[in-house]
Amino acid sequence: MKTLVVHCHPNPDSFNHALYRTALEALSPRHPVKAIDLYAEGFDPTLTCEERIAYLDNPDLIRERVKPHVEALLWAEHLVFVFPTWFHGPPSMLKGWLERVWLPGVAFLPAQRKGQLAKSGMRHIRRLTVVTTGGSPRWFVMVIGDPGRRLFTRALRALFAWRCKVTWLQLHDMNAVTASDRTHFIERVSRKLGSI
Q1: 126: helix, strand or coil
Q2: Name one GO cellular component term (predicted).
Q3: Contact status, residue 131 vs residue 84, Cβ threshold 8 Å
Q4: How far apart (Å, rounded) are the C-alpha atoms in residues 6 and 11?
């Protein structure tokens, strides 16, 4: 399965970066893999005024500026995201990547009339995997409705193939986990991705 791994963390020495390396090592022997490390490449997440004005009427303006990312997204059948959960969602750079790369004519076709849903341009995505960490305890994340998970497994997932399989791997309580907790989580990620 053609797999695109998207990583978003500023520190190459972080636990999150270790998860990214683990994901690549687990997937590469079995699948063709492309990797995007947003911070390492200095991706610009800012949707400019010019781009916002052109967003619906001339999305090719943005598409040309992020062409390698669009091509990787259209190539993929399996999307893997590796990122920390900050303020109950993905880092702003990853959110900006979604806004600048998942464009009209790429990820979706805009609705033609009021009350109509956009049409998907991403039915080629057959699998979604998210590997994330977060500082809050799991019980608190559940109480507030698990907003980060909802973004990926409901809102984005709606654009994918009807039978798209979803895997969500999250280590909670990052501010208090032990070295053993981190090791167990890395092993879990390696096992899960290695079995896909």
Answers
A1: coil
A2: cytosol
A3: no
A4: 15
